[in-house]
Amino acid sequence: MLKKLLEWDRETFVYLNNLGMAELDTFWSVVTNINTWIPLYLFFAFLFFYKRPFKEGVVKTLWVVTLAVFIIVITDLTKNYVARLRPNNDTELNTLIRILKNPTDYSFFSGHAASSFAITVLVYLLLRKRFRWTLIFFIWPLLFASSRIFVGVHFPLDILVGALVGIASALLFYALYQKFGTRLLLKDPT
Fold this sequence. Notes:
The protein is an all-alpha fold. It has one domain: Vanadium-containing Chloroperoxidase, domain 1. Helices cover 65% and strands 0% of the residues.
């Protein structure tokens, strides 16, 4: 079963990766770069503070930052434990695919997918009652995670599992926020 799943994963990756076009290489290279999205992260933080008490903005921002650190740690631990080669480093695959990036660490699971879905879900949950249009934020993780296939560095299962880990982590952190974060906001500083 696992062998067939991994075979499907490799075949699907090669198919999807080869859908890439030279005309879109710059687009995918920019989309996959974490620094490209800094304005979005700043916008998220801005929304936490917009017409809200300063303390609330600080607590929500720190909650999202803590989630991001959590995701980085579990991603790195999992990658080193599973030790799955990235497609660009797999000698059986790298001659069959388009490669735009060449990271040398392991592949499973995608930190890009995990972090972008985690942050987006948590930000959405924290802001959805104030801003009805926040569903638009999900364009970011969809593009960010998909880019990893087109630049040749992640298999579809890496991305799918990363997205699921990110979503589950965001739900956990939201539950923790509702239990503990809101208490921080109710405490009187005097």
